[in-house]
Amino acid sequence: MGISETVKQGWSTRRAWWFTATARTRERFERTALGSFWLGLSNLLSIGVLGVVYGSVFKVKDFGHYFVYLGLGLVTWNAIAGAIQSAPYILRSNAAKIKGYNTHPIFYTLEEWAFQLQTFGQSFALVIIALTFYNHNLVFHLFTAGILPLINLIMFIYWLPLIICVLGSEFEDLYQVIPIILQLMFLLSPILYQKSSLGKMAWTADINPIYRILSNLRQALIDGHLRLEQVITVFGLNILGLVVSLALFSKHQKKLPFII
Q1: Where are the domains of the chain?
Q2: Which of 16, 57, 115, 195 could pair with 190 in a Cys bridge, judged by C-beta atoms 3.0 to 4.6 Å apart?
Q3: Rounded alpha-carbon distances, angstroms, from residue 166 to 20, 75, 247, 248
């Protein structure tokens, strides 16, 4: 099957994979008192603790601004890292269904994507509401300057994990490598600290695709400034990434039952 058929199969089953992703989200917190609010609360707790600790370490003068900077960075990073870290397991964890059912394998990648989007959406909403205490314009900036960077994030957390899940079906080393790479990228990305703190190493942030996605969204939300040229460039790369990832998936689809 080609890309067009893969896209057609994914679109035709959109209600099903969104429903199963929602069911997974509900099941995750079925017996908890606060339910999915734990997603946002856990992020807020991390923001509070890390904000106090690293704000003191870096001798931050404006803690309010730092909490917003850190909080938006963390919640966006968690969405990207969560999607990437789960990617190698998508096909293998659904191996029995892929071999036994007549469902197109793209279904399971879209289900995971929907699950990650729902997780991000619930965390992001609560974090935004909490951080408006320090920056009252966050919600306004979200609907003015933040839409395009948010779309870039949504696209990015599908096509990159899609490539990783295909590679993970053939090379099990990715199960071990991905967490290490993510940890290193987190430490090297200006999330806990300003980009200027990198000094001569600031170029590492410029070539970091994850940080590009994160920084454009964060900057748009904080000051309402849309880096239009960067956002359009990233959007174009996202389109290219979608085409490449879908082509790779379509090419490997026939042999999936034999390698997972």
Answers
A1: 3-25+35-259
A2: 195
A3: 21, 26, 11, 8
Residue-wise pLDDT tens digits, 146-173? 999 999 999 999 999 999 999 888 877 7
| Cα distance between residue 160 and residue 245, in whole Å | 7
pLDDT tens string 219-229: 999 999 888 89
Q: Are 79 and 95 in contact (CB under 8 A)?
A: no
Alpha-carbon distance of 249 to 135, in angstroms, equals 42
Q: Which of 179, 194, 153, 187 is nearest to 69 (CA)?
A: 194
CA dist., res. 119 & res. 6, Å (int): 25
Dist. CA 213–CA 56, nearest whole Å: 27
Distance CA 147, CA 139 (A): 11
Structure token digits, residue 257: 């039952």
Please compute Rg for the chain using Cα positions: 19
Both tokens of residue 107? Answer: 């279904």
| pTM across the whole model | 0.91
Structure tokens given for 134: 């320090």
Helix axes 63-86, 174-188, angle to 10 degrees: 170
d(CA 1, CA 247): 10
